[in-house]
Amino acid sequence: MASRTRPKRALAPESQLVRNILAALEARGVWSWRVNSGTLPAARKGGGEYRVKQAPAGTPDILGVLRPSGVLFGLEAKVAGRVQNPAQRVWEARAQMHGVKYRVVYSVSQALAAVDEWGTGTACASGGVVSSGERQRVDGGVRG
Question: Is residue 4 part of a domain?
Answer without folding.
Answer: no
